[in-house]
Amino acid sequence: MEPRWQRIILTAACIATLALTGLFLTRLTESPLSSLTARDRSFLRIWAVNAPGGGQAWLKAQLRTFEKQHPGVSTYLRTVSATELTTSETILPDVVLYMPGDVTEPSALFLPLTGDMAARDGLLREELLRCGRWQNQQYGLPLCWGAWILAIDSALEPGSATTPAPTTLLGRPAATLDASSTPEPDYPLEAARQADCALQSPGGTALFTLSLLLEEQPPLPAAFATLSSGEVYAAFQRRQCVTAMLTTGQAIAFAGLTSGGSGFPHRIMTADEVITDQVWLASVTADAPPEAALLLSFLASAEAQKALSAQGLHTVRDDLTLYASGISARVESAAHRALSAINAYLPAETVQSAAWQFFHGQITLNEALLPLM
C-alpha cells in the first residue's frame, strides 16, 4: 500500500493539472480580446487545405502582423489534406482556408458568417462573396483570388515571344511598360497544329477561359482536360506541350524562372473577362473563439489586401487596384469588366461537365455558368 503522504502529493498534482487545463480551455474559448495580455494568450488554430500560388507566403506574413497588433493572440498554421479535414474523427481547428472543390458540405463543418466576417464594410466584391455562399448562407469569406491564362512557348513564334521582366528580391515581378491597351496577338493556330502536343489544360474552370481565347481549337492530345493543374504546368515547363492553361500563380512563378535563366521565353494570353475557381476562402468552425472573426476581418482589411501585390494575387475589395502593368494588371483589368467565380461547394464533376459542354459548343456560356454560381 502506498504511504499516505504519497497519495496526498499525487492528489494535489492531479487537481493542479485539471485546474490548469480548465484555465487554458476557458481562455481559448471565452476570453474577449480586449482583456488579453501577453500573459493571457489566446491560440488560434488555422488549417490550410489548399492555397493559390503565393497564398501561403502572404498569409504567414499577415499572421505575424496580426500577432504584433494583438499581443494576446498566437496563431498556429498547419497544412492538411481535404480528406483529413472531412474525416469524422477529426477535431476541427478554429479557422479553415480552402479553395473551390475542397469542401462540398460547408454546413457540416463551418458556422455561417455574420457582420464584418460576411462583408468587410460592404467593400468586398459580391461576385467573390457568392463563391463562399451556400443555401443562402455565407460560409466562406474570400481572401484573395487568381485566374487562368494561356501560356505560349516561344518555339511557336520566336518573333512575338517575350522574356518576362526580372523579379524583385521579394518575388514580385518588376515594373514593365503598361501593355493593357495593346491588342494581344492571336493564338498561333497554324504553328500549334504542327506540334506533337499543341495544347494542354486541366479540366473544369480552365476550359471556360480557354474557350474565350480560342476561335478554333488545335488538335487535342488524348490526355487533354484529364491532367491536374500541377501536371499541366510540369508538362509546359518540360516543353512537352507548346501551349498550356496555367494559373496566374504558375505563370508568375514561371516568369521568375525564365528571368533567372531556368525557363524559356514565352508570352501569355488573357481573356477579356475572368472566370475563375482560384479563390481562397476562410471559414470558422463551431467552437472557434471570438478572435477567429477578428482575424478574418483583418485579412480582408485594406492593410492586408494591399500586401497581396507582393505575390501577384488579387484583392477581394472593390476599393483597391493593385497593379499598373504586367500579367497581373491585365487580369485585374479584365476582372473590372467582368468577373465570375465558381461556387466553392459544388462537386468537381458538376463543374467539369458544364465546362466541357461549353468548350465543345453544346451550351452557351450563360447556360454553363448560371448553375455554378
Q: What features would you describe in this structure?
A:
The protein is built from 13 helices and 13 strands. The protein has about 375 residues and is of the alpha/beta class. The strands form four sheets. A five-stranded mixed beta sheet has the order 2-1-3-12-6. The chain has a four-stranded mixed beta sheet with strand order 8-9-7-10, sandwiched between helices. A two-stranded antiparallel sheet has the order 4-5.
Estimate the global geometry from the Cα principal axes: globular
Low-confidence stretches: 1-39, 163-180
Strand composition percent: 15-25%
E-strand count: 13
Summed up:
The protein is an alpha/beta fold and 373 residues long. It is built from 13 helices and 13 strands.
Features:
373 residues, single chain, globular, 15% strand, alpha/beta
Layout of secondary structure:
Layout: H1 4-29, E1 42-48, H2 55-69, E2 73-79, H3 82-86, E3 95-98, H4 126-131, E4 133-134, E5 137-138, E6 141-145, E7 148-153, H5 189-193, E8 199-200, H6 206-213, H7 229-237, E9 243-247, H8 248-259, E10 266-269, E11 274-276, E12 279-284, H9 290-299, H10 302-306, H11 326-337, E13 339-341, H12 348-359, H13 365-369
Parallel strand pairs: 1-2, 1-3, 8-9, 11-13
Antiparallel strand pairs: 3-12, 4-5, 6-12, 7-9, 7-10
Helix pairs in contact: 6-12
